Amino acid sequence: MLDDTENPASRHPRHRDRPAIDILASAQRHNLIFLMKKPLQESDITLFQEEVEDVLPIEHKYAEQYRERPRPFPRPKEDDWDDEEQTGLAEEAVETHDYLSFARPGVQQRVFHDLSRGDINVDLEVDLHGLSVDYAHRTLREFLFACRERRVRCARIIHGKGSGSSTRQPVLKQKVNYWLRLREDVLAFCSATRRDGGTGAVYVLLRNPNKSKRRGHGGGQR
Q1: What mean pLDDT do residues 109-134 have?
Q2: Using an 8 Å Cβ cutoff, are 104 and 188 in contact?
Q3: How many Cβ atoms are within 10 Å of 2's Cβ, its own excluded?
Q4: Comparing C-alpha atoms, which of 123, 149, 148, 136 is closest to residue 175?
Q5: pTM tops 0.70, yes or no
Q6: For residue 150, which of 222, 215, 78, 70 has the smallest C-alpha distance?
Q7: Alpha helices in 56-170 (DSSP H)
Q8: What are the pLDDT digits (tens) for 169-183?
Q9: How high does pLDDT run on average in the chain?
Q10: What is the CA radius of gyration of the chain?
Q11: Number of helices followed by number of strands (H, E) in the chain
Q12: Highest mean pLDDT among 23-32, 82-91, 150-159, 213-222
């Protein structure tokens, strides 16, 4: 590697503003490149110019500005995870089809349409695929608590299609379909688009936590 003390081309101020390839070509013609094992041939320089002719210059001269990371939040206690309503909804009463779809009354059709098309940005996701039922339930509750703390509007939950289970049935898919219906903070959910996992995952639309608090004090819209 040449530095300014060794490269004769750098001794001349007029070279500093010239493209590096021009300096190399000029130095090669004047036999100034003496640290290389083999001198550059004109054909090598031409080939290099052809390879980099489509390269665009970097637009920004400075490093990207520092971005503040999301604030950390304490790991919740298990009691804080439990936001499941006591609705009396029996798991046996919930049918699980290949395509999952659920929306609470009041969710606008346009919003649900955007959710089903994957047009709402996913802010956070969790992969439950391959977990035991108990551990998946615990992980899901902790994940939804994290979503609430971070004020996530849309999340993605990967539950898998059940092809790897011992019964060859989508056990976690059935459980997620039931668990999400019990949660007050879940406004809607549906199977994801193919690019985001298809019927092996769901998009979840979450309630604004501020509105949840107002609802607890006498009302509030979704």
Answers
A1: 95
A2: yes
A3: 15
A4: 136
A5: no
A6: 70
A7: 78-81, 109-116, 133-149
A8: 789 999 999 999 999
A9: 77
A10: 30
A11: 7, 5
A12: 150-159
Q: Is the pLDDT of residue 61 over 90?
A: no
- The two beta strands, 124-127 and 201-206, are unpaired
Spatial distance between the Cα atoms of 181 and 192, rounded to a whole number of angstroms: 17
40: number of Cβ within 10 Å: 15
Q: Looking at this protein, which amino acid is placed at residue 215? A: R
Q: Name all domains of the chain by residue range, CATH numbers in brackets.
A: 8-51 (no CATH), 96-216 (3.30.1370.110)
Q: Name the 3-class secondary structure at 92.
A: helix
Q: What order do you get walking across the sheet with 124-127 strand by strand? A: 101-103, 186-191, 201-206, 154-158, 124-127
HSE (side-chain half, CA atoms, 13 Å) at 186: 28
Residue 11's contacts (CB-CB under 8 Å, 6 or more residues apart) are 4
Q: Which residues of 171-194 are buried (b: 16+ CB within 10 A; e: fewer)?
A: bbbbbbbbbbbebebbbbbbbbee
